[in-house]
TrEMBL record:
UniProt keywords, alphabetically: ATP-binding, Chaperone, Nucleotide-binding
Keyword Protein biosynthesis: no
Protein name listed in UniProt: Thermosome subunit
InterPro entries: Chaperone_TCP-1, Chaperonin_TCP-1_CS, Cpn60/GroEL/TCP-1, GroEL-like_apical_dom_sf, GROEL-like_equatorial_sf, TCP-1-like_intermed_sf, TCP-1_chaperonin, thermosome_alpha
Family, similarity comment: Belongs to the TCP-1 chaperonin family.
Species this chain originates from: Marine Group I thaumarchaeote
Domain of life: Archaea
Pfam families cross-referenced by the UniProt entry: Cpn60_TCP1
Taxonomic lineage of the native organism: Archaea, Nitrososphaerota, Marine Group I
UniProt GO MF annotations: ATP binding; ATP hydrolysis activity; ATP-dependent protein folding chaperone; unfolded protein binding
Length: 448
């Protein structure tokens, strides 16, 4: 229906003629129905017996998963209320990592119970107040129910990580993958007094289809999906001394337009010799400080490559800034932006740096770093879909372990906390004033 506003100048069309307008109770029912539909969509994927969904996008790409956040990301929700449910899932995935499906189902249950109250003419603000009071009480009860764990208790953390993987496609591999996830977090955890913090930006995840999930590995260092720049360079360096350089080993063009006039061939020769000398001096500087591995964020000229290979320096170019930062944390090196200032103190170290074939690609592995503050998980699997699902499962496990390390307490699973909350909130609702009591009781029922 079109929305027409009357003005002194005549009627003005505000919305297009095909627009639909809903108000009051009809709008509430419509919004609740859309939200409940989203909850129903993911309900069958919950728990250890949850079913996987096959999602086919507009391009024909197939995703097989039972991860709530992934399912809802793939659906093209148009209804505003449905979009809000998708946002709930995204927020939980970003902040917590796991529990995306549960949060959407719980939100759907709360709205279903709220609908019953609206039919009894309970005002929406009363329902909101009751739900907020019940939510605060629920958090209080869960805090009492929670059991403290030691942030560095590896065995407990492995059990927690394993729980998050039990309902996934990788459940058969949950033991090795949960151990790997916990070890990765414990490598990068930082302690400040009694507090622990984990920055997942210090953890690199690389994926490559091929092999099996059992081939997934934790690398005490960084894996670069790059090749060594020159075939004459060594492909393996032990006891590596690594120079991390954010400067081009090439003669860069000037920013302003310049013109060089050459009147005879000797001048051209001098020009080329000077260019050669500049590049050689850059390489000589790197060699003089004892570096036998060069990781460069920018380009490496062919002439520079020649001199680097002569010195036996394994070199990689055009490495991403994020990888350079991780390399600095893993190797203990410092990123240098000016080769004139580079010194032995700037070098990082690793037991071994080598080029390795991963399926059809050649990657560079920087391994055996001493006390690395950044590590890599290399995920393998029989197909790209398996690898992607393993990636999602490991992400959930990493986030859960991170949450426990930062806030070291846990509650039991299997629906027991929800059943406990339902019982306690039902009893507690008796002391509430007015019609808020009804909302608290419905909140308790939603927990069940």
């Amino acid at each position: 229906m079109a929305s027409i506003q009357q003005t002194p100048q005549g009627p003005v069309l505000v919305l297009k003629e095909s627009a639909l307008q809903q108000k009051g109770r009809d709008a509430q029912k419509n919004n609740i129905a859309a939200a409940k539909l989203v909850a129903e969509l993911v309900k069958t994927s919950l728990g250890p017996r949850g079913l996987d969904k096959m999602l086919v996008d507009s391009l024909g790409d197939v995703t097989i998963t039972n991860d709530g956040a992934t399912i809802l990301k793939e659906i093209d929700a148009q209804h505003p209320a449905a979009k809000m449910m998708v946002e709930i899932s995204k927020t939980i995935d970003t902040e917590v990592g796991d529990g995306t499906t549960s949060s959407v189902i719980f939100a759907g249950a709360l709205l279903e119970k709220a609908e019953k109250l609206l039919e009894k003419d309970v005002h929406s603000t009363v329902i909101i107040d009751g739900y907020e009071a019940a939510s605060e009480k629920a958090l209080e009860l869960l805090a009492k129910l929670a059991k403290a764990v030691e942030p560095d208790d590896r065995e407990s953390l492995i059990k927690i990580a394993k729980t998050s993987m039990q309902s996934k496609l990788v459940s058969e591999n949950s033991v090795p993958l949960s151990k790997l996830s916990v070890d990765a977090i414990l490598k990068i955890v930082e302690k400040d007094g009694d507090k622990y913090s984990v920055d997942l930006d210090n953890l690199k995840v690389e994926k490559k289809a091929g092999g099996s999930i059992d081939d997934t590995a934790l690398i005490n260092g960084i894996v670069l999906d790059k090749e060594i720049v020159h075939s004459g360079m060594p492909t393996k360096i032990e006891k590596a001394k690594i120079a991390l350089v954010n400067a081009a080993l090439e003669v860069e063009k000037t920013e302003m337009s310049a013109e060089i006039r050459i009147s005879d061939p000797t001048q051209m020769q001098l020009f080329l010799e000077e260019e050669n000398r500049m590049l050689k001096s850059m390489v000589d500087k790197i060699h003089s400080i004892g570096a036998n591995v060069l990781i460069c964020q920018k380009g490496i000229d062919d002439i520079s490559q020649h001199y680097l290979s002569k010195h036996g320096i394994l070199s990689v170019r055009r490495v991403k800034e994020s990888d350079m930062t991780k390399l600095a944390k893993a190797t203990g090196g410092r990123i240098t932006t000016n080769l004139d200032d580079i010194s032995t103190n700037d070098l990082g170290s690793a037991e071994i740096v080598h080029q390795k074939k991963v399926e059809s690609d050649k990657w560079v592995f920087i391994e055996g770093c001493k006390n690395p503050r950044s590590v890599t998980i290399l995920i393998r699997g029989g197909s790209q879909r398996v690898v992607d699902e393993a990636d999602r499962s490991i992400h959930d496990a990493l986030m859960v372990v991170k949450d426990v390390v930062e806030k070291p307490s846990i509650v039991a699973g299997g629906g027991s906390p929800e059943a406990y909350l339902a019982t306690e909130l039902n009893e507690w609702s008796g002391g509430a004033e007015g019609r808020e009591q009804l909302a608290i009781k419905q909140y308790a029922e939603a927990c069940e």
